[in-house]
Amino acid sequence: MPHYSRCLLCGWLVSQFVAGALGAASLRAGIKRSVFGKMPDGEEIHLYTLTNPNGMQVGITNYGARIVSIVVPDRHGNMADVVLGFDNLEGYLGKDPYFGAIVGRYGNRIAKGRFALDGVDYTLPINDGPNSLHGGTQGFDKKVWTARELSQVHPAVELTYLSRDGEEGFPGDLRVQVVYTLEESNALRIDYRATTDKDTVLNLTNHSYFNLAGEGSGSILDQEIMINAASFTPIDATMIPTGEILSVAGTPFDFRHLTRIGARINDDDQQLKFAHGYDDNFVLNHRGPGLVLASRAVDPHSGRVLEVFTTEPGVQFYTGNFLDGSVRGKGGKAYAYRSAFTLETQHFPDSPNHPNFPSTELKPGETYHQTTVFKFSTAN
Q1: Which of 207, 286, 347, 354 is catalytic?
Q2: Is 3 a catalytic residue?
Q3: For residues 230 and 254, what is the distance between their CA atoms, to the nearest angstrom?
Q4: What's the pTM?
Q5: What is d(CA 267, CA 309) in angstroms, rounded to the nearest whole number?
Q6: Domain 31-378, what fold?
Q7: How far apart are CA 309 and CA 296, in angstroms?
Q8: What are the boundaries of each domain within the chain?
Q9: What would the pLDDT profile of 114-163 be if each residue is shown by its tens digit?
Q10: How far apart are CA 3 and CA 20, in angstroms?
């Protein structure tokens, strides 16, 4: 800009403008901690807002190690929050269907709240019909985790929790670490690690509810999804796997190509009737260790795209069949029937009672480690 050099004042103004612009750009990326609320006993809970250079923001709270918000652009650059949740801690302490939480020790269901390990029978709390769901009545979603901001290239926050031997009926002292990292590629990476001092079972996942048009914006049935799975695990009337692994071919569960979520959701299919829609574990097409593309979801209206990569063998696709408008989320919005979907990367439901499923056992001296990535982009 050589014409600015004609006067010293103009030169100084330009230098200040450039410095300010560079400073603003550097401030955009990083971590901001704020108070999110207080527990009934007065313990302060925090919100960690991760921002990348593109302006994508992710809110994480240490209550339940939850994703509170994911703000991403549409094809025109308009930003929107695409996960359901609440504006403050108080909402999560009320009627909360696991919005954004890390669930455990065992994500998904265990039949009748019972399993045997090393010849010992264990009993878990029953909180979902006749079964135990997402770790019991006081699972990881209801725990206060210890949070620490990490100094690394990308903004990241580490959350840790010690689950004591016998908590919710599970054996062993279990030390859990979850790290959320927001990358410049608009990808949110979740790394899970855990160790135990006694043989136990473990199945961790994140329970975010997505609506790519924006949370509280209505039905997700016109959004489209691909699930990289040639088979699924059918369920009985109580939502427990039968133990079979069936092909998706010729069924409403065939999402091997991008398909509108609502295209077959009301088909006359017993599996759909059991779940009142989709709430099923898909067996991912893994060809080896490492991350695999589990799913790709697209909102044709906004152009937002979500790709899910994982090291896990399965993903639970759920279409918000039990949302009924009674839960009011951010800004007082009523979260209506089928207004969000989940993609819970996981080991299979009830694996401790199905020897033919991938094992969820964790032994002393071993380290549980899995990774899931939520990557956002836009399509024309």
Answers
A1: 207
A2: no
A3: 7
A4: 0.92
A5: 29
A6: Beta-galactosidase; Chain A, domain 5 (2.70.98)
A7: 9
A8: 31-378
A9: 999 999 999 999 999 999 999 999 999 999 999 999 988 999 999 999 99
A10: 20
